[in-house]
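Re: weekly structure request thread

Next one in the queue (271 aa):
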Amino acid sequence: MEKLIITAALTGAEVTREVQPALPLTPEEIARDAYECYKAGASIVHIHARDPEGNPTQDKAVYQQIKTLIEEQCNVIVQPSTGGAVWHSAEERLQPVELKPEMATLSTGTVNFGPDVFMNTQEYMEKFAQRMLTLGVKPEIEIFDRGMIHNALGLLKKGLLKSPLHFDFVLGVPGACPGGVEDLVYLRSRIPDDATWTVAGIGRHETPLAAAAIVMGGHVRVGFEDNVYYSKGVLARSNAQLVERIVRIAAELGREVATPDEAREILGLKK
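Done, posted below.
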């Protein structure tokens, strides 16, 4: 079985300091958390930037600052979000891709996001995929519902994506696919045999889905973007604490954890 790739989703676009006091917001704080997660065992850090007031931003300059600060400390894979916040335009959302990171997220469908709607029209999907293809950025295809796999395979057929694909199953978002292990098993059965995949369980689904992914041969995403708690009613001390738990579970289950360079090899990234 391949070594386990752990992604740390550090900040997200919705979580606030009122909910999680340890949430990193400034470029310096995000870079610090990225380094701590790297030391704990993460090989990818998934980044949402915030402005000086703590609001979500897709400003290329802020992402550049975060990327530079992280790369000064370690060789973890920096994966910016092109989802941003639900109110960002397609043009705003695409800004971090212009920095030519090794990876970036690509959502392949519109989905209810709690009380909001996360808009990803066919035009958006093709535009984002084409830009990543042009710049040599590997997409992590974000899947919130079954139809998004179908949409991704359509982009592959059009030549806008290259095999092997890499998927992230984001499960348990209110309004989207639930977070049961049976949901993960089904989604895994619908992607190409040569694809790699990660699961991001939202809230209470994070740890059970992570354990399932480890034994199924998939990879795992944890972090404050998805879950601010360590256990019921107990806030996690840090993103690194959530990473450390996955490392321990993987060790108990006999699965080695990948370094950033080993993750690059598994994902077919060029460094």
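The longest helix spans residues 27-40. The chain has one domain: 6-267.
Next request, please.
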